[in-house]
Amino acid sequence: MEYVQSENGKHEAPDTPLEYQSETGRLNILGFWVFLGAEIALFATLFASYLVLIGRYADGPTPGELFEVKGVLIETFLLLTSSFTCGLAVHEMRRNSLKGLIVWLGITLLLGLGFLGFEIYEFVHYIHEGASLTTSAYWSGFFVLVGTHGAHVTMGIAWMILIIIQLVQRGLTKHTTRKVFVASLYWHFLDVVWIFIFTAVYLYGMVMHHG
Amino acid sequence: MKWDEFFVTGDPFIYAADVSIVLTTIAIVFVLTYYKKWKWLWSEWLTTVDHKKIGIMYIIAAVLMLFRGGVDALLMRAQITAPGSEILKSQHYNEIFTTHGTIMIIFMAMPFLIGLINFVVPLQIGARDVAYPYLNAVSFWTFFFGAMLFNISFVIGGSPSAGWTSYVPLAGDELNPEPGQNYYLLGLQISGIGTLLTGINFLVTILKMRAPGMNLMRMPMFTWSTLITMLLIIFAFPVLTVALALMTFDRLFGSHFFTLADGGIPMLWANLFWIWGHPEVYIVILPAFGIFSEIISTFARKTLFGYKAMVWSMVSIAGLSFIVWVHHFFTMGANAVVNSFFSITTMAIAIPTGVKIFNWLFTLYKGRIKITSAMLWSLAFIPNFTIGGVTGVMLAMAAADYQYHNTYFLVAHFHYVLISGTVFACFAGLYFWYPKMFGHKLHERIGKWSFWLFMIGFNVCFFPMYFLGLNGMPRRIFTYEWADGWFDLNMVATTGAIGMAIGFVLLVYNIYWSFRYAERETMGDPWDGRTLEWSTPTPVPFYNFAKIPEVTGLDAYSRMKRDPVKDIKKDYKPIHMPSYSGKPIIMSIALFISGFGLVFEWWWMAIAGLIGVLAMLVLRSFDYDDGYYVSVEEIERIENSIE
Fold first, then answer.
1. Is A38 at the interface with chain B, CB within 8 A?
2. Is the pTM of this model over 0.90?
3. Which residue in B334, B485, B515, B588 is deepest, having the highest Cβ count within 10 Å?
4. What is the rounded distance in angstroms from the CA atom of residue B412 to the CA atom of residue B506?
5. On the CB side of B120, how many CA atoms lie within 13 Å of its CA?
6. A positions 140-179 inside 8 Å of B (CB)
7. Per-residue model confidence as pLDDT tens digits over B484-505
8. pLDDT surpassing 70 at residue B254
9. Are B369 and B299 in contact (CB under 8 A)?
10. Strand pairing partners for B629?
11. Given a cut of 60, is residue A12 above it in pLDDT?
12. Residue A210: its pLDDT value, please?
């Protein structure tokens, strides 16, 4: 079992997905899982900071005054659906359908953009209502936690655009499939983080701290 | 901002530093140009993805930082020796004291160990490179330019002055409006990226790229310590990333995480800092344990005693390291239950550490001990580290800690563990692996002089500090009165510091002397080594192993030497190697520019740098350079030329 990154001469089981067929592909996917472990530590720290700052509103508005169910539900719906379509994209990739992959990735991208649009609208709205990064410790925690997630989504969208270009250029190869797969892991991860934000920030904020 | 605010002025030390920086730069540029070495520097070193070269660059950078941090230390000792001395102004003392701590931990100890890890671990596990060679170069260059950003602060804009722990509100925008603290935040942030990437890289390397037959319980102890350290990095460094980012937001964008006004919690910083900071202490001590294990076993000419106990004690130290952080602020008003919990977990760390100490002693027992410089550092580690450890347990008693917290007792304690642990290990590792890196040994006699001067100097410097602390001398002060009665012991301590400085100078002289005159190695196994790195020829070919070795048990190379395989058929196969790339260094320079812009809140520069970083990421994404294959003829040519 040589670890050498030899693309040739390896006998793979016929049902091994393309992205797992090269040593480089396997290593990169594992490394990305480890990276996600570090991302969990990062978000856990942000959540912890946010949670201890709850109630520290200074003279600013409280979350109960500003949070609205409708916008947050739309965001949640868009992002959760995009995770599903991202799964469909990988499914199409495994079926060796380049076209299906690109279509579903494109839809994922649009849903992600929709999510981002609503989030930006929400942020602008809060700032108009007098809640910004500088208002109070609570709102600093809110904007940095939710904003970090939003920045991750933005990165994910940019990344997916780059991958779609490469898919068009090169089709399904060991490289492009690996990139799609890794990006899909990232995208699902952001979805999971959002569920925690939805619960710890919005539901908790609306139920426990309204008015 | 005016130019006289931009450059630090008004202090003769700073002018001297300015002159020396300019002269050194001119000298380097001149030498490189005169000997026509620019192209060589770029194509052989700056763009390299070879883990061995990256390791060497880490070590060179770390030695330079050790010099810088050491000069800081000497300046502090000079100021504090006699009461009422005015060598340094209070602000300047604060700055030097901050940069000393930060540089020694972040830019010296960690990079030195990561340098040794980079060079040694892939060889120890029989691999041809790390899992992600390109990423490895990114790690090095982000560390390097993060360190440089931090270092230029003392001539441009002024250094941070809130201590290496940067406690708020002292480090906040209101009490500390100068750019110095921004340097701290951004320098650490940029180099932290590199550390996290190193963590991921080596975790995967060790898990996935071991030679056939090397299961986890056959790994050399240094590799084991690296594996555990990388786990610590992966879970601890994101906390630092967040903490630094939040303080950056507070200072640059007016948020209120750690402010006194508008709901901020200064203690949140202390908690976040030490949730990272305490594991960090073990990030710099566990690899040291690994190094000592290798050296003690090699020069006692015995297998390491209690291998499994060594592994499990490191695992439990790593686990415990995450639940002790409150012991850094026992006196800041937590209740008795909280203090008791952290007191007990802290003391518990002494148990696995004690297990390790006994295992080293039992390894020595009935060993045929060979006293080399590397072994001297390792032997000296045991008693000195134990002194540091025992006084650590004294500090761990929360109730007693109320007496001596924030005194020189603490200063003595952590210097005892960090110097006799980490610094001794860096020196020991350097002497030990030097022939593998550079093809010749360091001179033993100079090495031993250097050792004795440094080791005795170290004890003379720091042992009196325990008593200074018990006599009530607080740390972080820049001067005191004759009536305080702390002069005598401070005088002694400074003498010791000079001894350490001479020891360090001798080490550097040793490198120079050995480069010029030492006998060149031909065999590659100068110490009768036990692990796979010694099975390679010296200098190590860029592909490390022409044929990947088969491992049959612990101390793989010892076994090979005992039962040599008779028929070594030279049926080489083409070897895949990664291509060099200039992108990591260019990207890190862009990060440096962006960081520099943020320090002075010059947004255009920060954004321009960031665009450069993104451009490099995009270019890399479209980069399908898969490396190349070394042909069988080429391998045969290289292998034959070695024999």
1. yes
2. yes
3. B588
4. 24
5. 30
6. 140-141, 143-144, 159, 162, 166, 170, 175, 179
7. 999 999 999 999 999 999 999 9
8. yes
9. yes
10. B576
11. no
12. 52
